[in-house]
Design brief:
Elements: H1 8-62, H2 79-85, H3 88-119, H4 126-134, H5 141-151, H6 163-170, E1 186-192, E2 195-200, H7 203-227, H8 231-239, H9 244-255, H10 257-272, H11 276-281, H12 294-303, H13 308-339
Antiparallel strand pairs: 1-2
Length: 340
């Protein structure tokens, strides 16, 4: 028996049905896109104004003659930048920033990794220790600075030793006396133009307070990464005769490299723009500016001296220092995602 073929009208409707569904789906997708744009538009507008707009305003002020309460946007080129790099105080600030950044990063990474490895051994009371190590992160740098300013107060002839110095005296070393943030010594003190290199001893106090607060954060990053490494991988290495040291050196640490890179970026940008901790511990930048940093110099230049163009130039230099650290990381992350 011959089956009747469907009519041409039915064929047209059957063929047009998928096209109609695609059209409705595209229309619905377009509506969803507009809703998404409407939701993120306020945030994008705020970022455009309060981040990039103010960066542009600071850049404009940094190449102007604005030196006083009354704005003066007369273009002077790079004169303010040249004046800064010829300023002995700003050179000291850059030296202090380099030392602080290196010492802060190394101490946070080493101590954070050590604490993470210890906690990864499933020790008794792990939750308590983890909470104790993370507790400093609940404080602001202002609070940390006030506390450590008292702890590292070197004392004087009238009051005698106080804080850490007093503790060391009680431990049987009465001869120990360190000036901490009041020590203007630069070791080894190699002359370089108007300043000395390399290690400002007064900055050691700032480093101690900073890594006390942030080493717990680094520990949390490393601990999360360690807990994500399969135990079978370590067992296979042990079967092959690898020692625990070799397992960490050749297996664990290479796996932790992305975490280390992320920690360096996060901690690095904090150290390059540090202000509140230094201001809380040494509001004046210490003797001979031994603890001074660009953020503190900018604050005093703008809000106490009303030198707005010079302060804007300092802020742009700080932005460039952070960009030198952040931009290569963003390029690396983008290339990694593309390759994946």
């Amino acid at each position: 028996m011959k089956v009747a073929e469907p009519s041409s009208e039915a064929q047209v409707k059957q063929a047009a049905a998928p096209l109609a569904r695609d059209a409705r789906r595209k229309k619905r997708l377009t509506r969803d896109q507009w809703i998404s744009i409407a939701l993120v538009s306020p945030s994008l507008l705020a970022i455009a104004i309060f981040v990039y707009g103010f960066i542009g305003w600071s850049l404009l002020a940094s190449v102007s003659r604005w030196d006083g309460i009354v704005p003066d946007f007369t273009f002077v080129g790079l004169r303010n930048y040249l004046r800064l790099f010829g300023d002995a105080r700003f050179q000291i600030d850059l030296r202090n920033t380099v030392f602080f950044t290196v010492a802060f990063l190394v101490s946070c990474l080493v101590i954070g990794l050590f604490l993470a490895i210890v906690l990864d051994q499933r020790i008794k009371g792990e939750n308590i220790f983890r909470s104790v190590f993370l507790f400093p992160m609940a404080l602001s740098f202002i609070v940390t600075g006030v506390v450590w300013r008292w702890l590292l107060n070197p004392g004087n002839e009238a009051s005698g030793a106080v804080g850490i110095n007093l503790l060391i005296h009680k431990l049987g070393m009465p001869w120990f006396r360190f000036g901490w943030f009041t020590d203007p010594t630069i070791w080894p003190g190699i002359p370089f133009g108007d300043i000395e290199l390399f290690i400002p001893l007064g900055m050691i106090a700032i480093v101690l307070a900073a890594f006390w607060q942030m080493s717990g954060y680094t520990m949390a990053l490393y601990l999360a990464a360690l807990r994500g490494i399969p135990e079978e991988l370590r067992e296979a290495a042990r079967v092959d005769g690898a020692t625990e040291v070799q397992i960490y050196r050749f297996i664990i640490l290479p796996i932790l490299q992305p975490i280390t890179l992320s920690a360096v970026i996060i901690l690095g940008h904090i150290s390059l723009k540090i202000f509140d901790l230094v201001y809380a511990m040494t509001p004046g930048g210490g003797p001979a500016f031994v603890t001074d940093v660009p953020g503190l110099y900018m604050f005093k230049t703008v809000f106490q001296g009303n030198h707005y163009a010079l302060g804007a130039a300092i802020s742009i230099i700080m932005l460039l220092l952070v960009a030198v650290l952040i931009v290569p990381y963003l390029i690396y992350s983008f290339r990694t995602e593309v390759q994946a």
